[in-house]
Amino acid sequence: MHNFYDFTLSELEKVIGALGNEKFRARQLYRWVYNQGVSDFSAMTNISKSLRAIFSAMFSMDLPVIKEVFPSEDGSIKFGLSAADGSIIESIFMPEEKRNTLCISTQIGCRMGCKFCVTGKIGFRRNLTVSEIVGQVISVKKYLNMERRISNIVLMGMGEPIDNLDAVLGALEILKNHLGLDFSHRKITLSSVGLIDGLKTIEPKVASIAISLNAADEKKRTFLMPINRLYPIREIMSFVKGFKGSRRIRITFEYILIKDINDSLDDAKELADLLEGVKCKINLIPYNESPYIEFKTPPPERVDRFQMYLLNRRFTTMIRDSRGKDIFGGCGQLGMKYLEEKHNEG
Ligand code: SF4
Questions:
Q1: SS3 338
Q2: pTM for the whole thing?
Q3: Which domains does the chain have, with CATH numbers?
């Protein structure tokens, strides 16, 4: 049996076509499942009974199940979703004035080993499937029950999306297809540590790109993000400068501000010098402290000073506050909590 949510529309057309059925049946199924939220084949009344029986025997409709919900006092909600093998997938819903963003995961754990990240500490467990990536959006959407609409998606939860590129591209296709979940590519952001070889294969209309930079100095970035040895800042910059969509589409740089590590005025100057002349946006994210990592959040005045410097150098710079500080908001914190619980039980 196949999981229905693993199929892009064109893949579904092929599978259904191979059985001798008209391709438009795939579109009908997509409409029922994604547009109307119907996952029971017997309720799909414009499809013959015999065909409905074939589809029920062919496809399972399994989604990750919401196991735990942690509402934060800042309005965000962290979800722990359970995959079929019991792995915990983390998603976080972050309502803002003008948009409601869902941050989703692409892997269980991560092999990038960023020093500031709890998921990096967990290490790599496995890739998520297409259905597990898309399933986070569907399950959270059902939970929110039309009361709050998800307007934006960020692939910024557990895992490095480019390290699971095939499944991520499949999921993005379903997220964007107008018969699928119907998100504009402008509303989807894929955040990467800068795996350039994979990033180069992504067309501008697939998703907006954000690069997690966190330092403008090679040595410091390698300390924070060991992957910098393989994909150093200079290579990231040459990718960004040659980015196909760069005239219209600006790449976002994420910079997690960590107290006394990368939050000084010298760091801000170095960042501004590095990005001089590059059409980009900078998101400053004050570090979200966790019991598992010794790094600290900088005081607000240091964050403001950093931002002010960049604004004075004419960079579009936003402070994106860490959300859900009281609910294991940082990516991987929930995963770590479950691992600890398992360890204690064992
Ligand atoms: S920050 Fe992202 S890429 Fe780095 S270890 Fe954490 S999940 Fe992986």
A1: helix
A2: 0.93
A3: 2-60 (1.10.150.530), 65-345 (3.20.20.70)
